[in-house]
Specification:
Length: 343
């Protein structure tokens, strides 16, 4: 839709209309249960040399980010590229601690209820509430390229920052989540074998979820992780952390982990939402190979417990929408519970 390359029969349809035309559900990711408020932080944006800079100014100093936007990315419906991250050293950590200490999550439960009513029977809203502090530092605050150098050079200061982030979230964010009407929470994104390997996962991620998960489960909510990365080395840790579901769960041939391996490790204890690597929808993959993969998928997931069929990570700009329609036909033919291993 964003690239305006839809076949004629789908031209002009909204996303929801297209989902219905293709007989698929909606992932319903746009619900929210809070708005974020930062007191005493002045946010200033400006353009310079083709980049958009954002400065966060506080009484104890300022940090900034830079985004590069390009026509080729926009043409593919893709966002800009981060070229400068806010945290570059200890002086920035102190500024960010001040920002975190002055951050509040104000409930927006009526917004969620309205969105839930809008989605209706087409899906269950999955509400994103942010990332685990350690991975937020890696991905959004320091950036993968520099974060591990910073961790090696300034471990004590970074661990203090992570402690502040966790404490503030525990006191201000967690209660908003627990008392919300949302039933499915997305908390944790892009964790991977490469950037959150077992030693770092065990040290910085497991302790956070050991506190969070019992509370949210006791409140009757399920928690998902956005698993669009190589999780081959952290499958066991994902279950130990307590996630109920991995969504956009990406598998071979795009990453080393297979659907069979995930089932072997998790059984039916962790719900898998995914199963179709987006590469399989590309015109570069012969249709015969696509059909062979789908046949194997139905055999792997039989009888169909703890599984939601979806594309991981996304239906990409070059994807053949006809193959999405073909998947719906396959589901109509073979997707009735209990699914038979042999079609």
């Amino acid at each position: 839709i964003l690239t305006h390359t839809m076949p004629a029969q789908y031209e002009g349809l909204s996303l929801r209309e297209l989902e219905r035309a293709l007989h698929v559900g909606t992932p319903a990711r746009d619900g929210r249960i809070f708005t974020v408020r930062r007191e005493g932080v002045e946010v200033v944006q400006y353009w310079k040399e083709g980049k958009q800079f954002t400065e966060y100014r506080t009484p104890v100093g300022a940090v900034r980010t830079a985004m590069h936007f390009a026509a080729d990315l926009d043409a593919q419906g893709l966002p800009g590229r981060v070229e400068e991250f806010p945290l570059k050293g200890p002086a920035d950590y102190r500024v960010w601690e001040w920002i975190i200490e002055h951050t509040y999550w104000d409930p927006a439960y009526d917004d969620y209820r309205a969105y839930d009513a809008e989605i209706g029977d087409d899906g269950l809203p999955m509400v994103a509430v942010g990332d685990v502090p350690f991975h937020e530092f890696l991905l959004d605050l320091a950036g993968y390229d520099d974060a591990f150098y910073q961790l090696a050079d300034h471990r004590r200061e970074i661990e203090h920052l992570l402690g502040v982030m966790t404490e503030v979230q525990r006191e201000r964010l967690w209660p908003v989540i627990l008392h919300s009407p949302a039933r499915l929470i997305l908390h944790g994104v892009h964790l991977s074998s490469q950037f959150t390997p077992p030693p770092l996962f065990e040290k910085y991620i497991l302790p956070y979820y050991a506190e969070f998960m019992p509370l949210v489960h006791a409140a009757g909510k399920a928690v998902a992780m956005h698993a669009d990365n190589d999780t081959s080395q952290i499958l066991e840790l994902i279950e130990r952390a307590g996630w109920d579901m991995v969504e956009c769960f990406i598998t071979a041939p795009m990453v080393p982990v297979t659907l069979e391996r995930a089932r072997e490790v998790w059984g039916n204890r962790v719900i898998i939402w995914g199963g179709i690597p987006s590469l399989l929808l590309s015109p570069s993959v012969p249709e015969s190979e696509f059909r062979e993969y789908m046949d194997k998928l139905f055999r792997t997931i039989a009888p169909g417990d703890a599984f939601i069929l979806g594309v991981a990570d996304n239906v990409m700009p070059d994807s053949l929408i006809e193959r999405v329609a073909l998947v719906s036909e396959m589901v109509e033919e073979r997707g009735w519970y209990p699914i038979q291993a042999e079609g």
